[in-house]
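re: ur question from earlier - yeah i can do the single chain one, its not a big deal. heres the input i used so u can compare w yours
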Amino acid sequence: MNTKKFTILHSNDMHGDFLAEAQGKKGELIGGLALLSGYINKVREKEENVFYVIAGDMVQGSLIDSEYKGISTMEIMNYLAPDVVSIGNHEVDYGLSHLLFLEKMANFPIVNANLYIKKYHRRLMRPYIIIKKAGFDILFTGIITEKIMDSINQDKLVGSFVTLNEASEEVGKITNAYKNDDIDLTILLTHIGYESDIELAKLLKPEWGVDMIIGGHSHTILEKPTKVNNILIAQAGVGTNQVGRFDIVVDDDTNSIIDYQWQLIPINNKLAKPDKALTDYIDSYKKEVDRKYNTLACKLSNKLTHPEREVETSLGNLIADTFAEIAECDVMLVGAGSIRVKEFGPLVTLGDLTACFPYDDSLNRFNINGGQLKSIFTHIMRPENRNGEGECYQVSMGTKAVYDDQKKELESLVIKGKLVEDSEEYSICLQGYHVSSSAEYLNITEDELRKSGKSKVVSTSAQGVLEEYLKNHQNIECAVEGRLVYK
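and the output i got, formated as tokens:
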């Protein structure tokens, strides 16, 4: 029997989490890329056959990343030197052309099998890579979430095979074409969420020889890998406070994993020393950003929070109310995922504001009837949308929606103290991102939104609106009021 041991370290949804944080006992630091790099370097020195892989969403989520539009992230990732990376939905936040620019900056391969230039039926990116290590051949390929299409769906040249069935067929194409007898291990780097990873594993044919799915997007913390259809599935939460670690034994004769151990390793300064070169490099970015963004924008009356996307939050209410005032609309829907921090204030700098709401999108007002408005709330409040992978919303003052989880129906919808009537007309404001994705996220097409002929671009910069409002409104109070109620 010809076997070999490999160590696979894996991250996902790092979201520009560059800096270590003080926590616990005095002097204890957790997370941050310098400590993570220190641990990766330590493992690479100690073990013989090491891979470090990332399953999407390296960018977006920090002030440094926003300021440099991912360029800083890619330069810093070059220090980590991952062996292979797949893209996630946030890699496209700065636009498709910018993604291709970032790819050229990377000193490491970025793989994706199911993003296509439709007209020519050509894959946009490198679909797979085979890495030879210790006499063994390991095949990696990448699969994306359908969310990636939302960021580029205005580009009619680009399309994707995004359903799970179509994604599984793309995996089949790669393995059928390139998985010969010499391929000892096949690993999918996905960004479709943990539950979707499970469903995808069920669809993969055993003959394709997929051994492992390392995923992202749902920020799932696992106690141990899930095994479905003889495929190991793992994910490593979110950020850089931890890293997943597989120690596996691969049999060259059967091209299979015959033994494995998996751990979720907490990253702290007891585990490894920070990578000094990377610390210095990150600090060079931080100094520039601090110099620009440390100006105080406003002071709130109390600290606001946004602990999870699926429920009403005090910070979500502040942002929704701010946009509703400028839009003069009946209902403002703010994508809960647009809000990137869990706590905000009471002192708010320009840096805090940018980190909180990094997406500089348009605000768009439409007039629809009450039946359509109730349909929207029924769709966004349904339980299946509150699973960590759906698109949830924060709503403006004067809105109260009550949803019955057992009956799976909207029990009532009140706007400004009155029950919504199907035939009445109501104005609704949305971010541009959600307009272009309205059919999927809101269960209403863009044509239906515009049908009344009263649509208007209220602002081309939601970020600018929020900044101006906060600068001119001190000591704002905001709390959770029961705008979204689940029974």
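Residues 3-286 form a domain with the Purple Acid Phosphatase; chain A, domain 2 fold (CATH 3.60.21.10). not sure if urs matches, ping me
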